[in-house]
Amino acid sequence: MRIPARSVCTAIRDDIVSGVFERGGRLTEDQLARRYGVSRVPVREALRTLESEGFVVSRRHAGAQVAEPTDGEAADLLDARALLEPLAAARAAQRRTDAHLKVLRGLVRLGRERARRGQGEDLRALGGWFHETLAQASGSPALATLLTQLRHKIAWMYVVDPPERPADVWAEYGAIVDALARGDAERARALTALHAERTLPLHRLKRPERGRVRVSQHAVNTASARN
Which pLDDT tens digit goes with each residue over 170-218? Predict the structure, then answer.
């Protein structure tokens, strides 16, 4: 069974985001092939994709390395998200399906329930699913892909503190969904922009830990290869 490069790419990206591979660290095809239990071919393809996404850089005579974004580049990520998420919400108000609305309303219902119970870890995952679904509802695969890449990079570069009043965050999400349901693109845009502005202070830059080495082996999830 050939493991698809996209599965290897996801595994490497996840390990970069979580800090298994520290910024500036070298990535060799042999090392990665052993770690994920695959051949060098999907690793090579995955590294090309990650380079195009900005997670990896290739240097002459040095090979592939984890990228080292500057603080300015990290700030640009939040600025880009503040522009693209409201655009996606406006598009979603015009293009969303009933299925999108059903999923978004379900997420808001669960988020409000978890907020009342103080289940912060659940809220973080639910919030990610909400934004992912909102991007998909835009009806623009290119825009959804850009936003997914931004979310990965922001998770790589920033620690996001939990809000003091999570119920207020989910009330904002609920208002966005109401705007989508009414087809009100301008309100959806404005509410999403306001949400991005309010959550901006929760982001703190991560400072890489130098000299930390993790050697645990990690096999690629092969579920997608069987489907």
Answer: 999 999 999 999 999 999 999 999 999 999 999 999 886 654 444 444 4
* pTM, to two decimals: 0.82
DSSP string over 38-103: --HHHHHHHHHHHHHHTSEEEETTTEEEE----HHHHHHHHHHHHHHHHHHHHHHHHH--HHHHHH
Nearest to 85 by CA among 204, 199, 201: 199
CA distance linking residue 15 with residue 55, whole number of Å: 11
Structure tokens at 166: 């999570």
Rounded to 5 degrees, what angle do the CA atoms 128, 117, 161 make?
45
Of 146, 131, 151, residue with least CA distance to 52: 146
- Rounded to whole angstroms, how far apart are CA atoms 207 and 19? 11
Per DSSP, the residues of 115-180 read HHHT-HHHHHHHHHHHHHHHHHHTT-HHHHHHHHHHHHHHHHHEEEPPPS-HHHHHHHHHHHHHHH
CA distances to 95, 176, 181 from 99, in Å: 11, 16, 11
Q: How far apart are CA 25 and CA 32, in angstroms?
A: 13
pLDDT computed for residue 226 by the predictor: 41
